[in-house]
Amino acid sequence: MLSKEPMTIPEISKLLNKKLSSTAWLMNKLRKAGRIENKFVEKHKPYIWFKSACM
Question: Contact 36/27 with Cβ under 8 angstroms?
Answer without folding.
Answer: yes
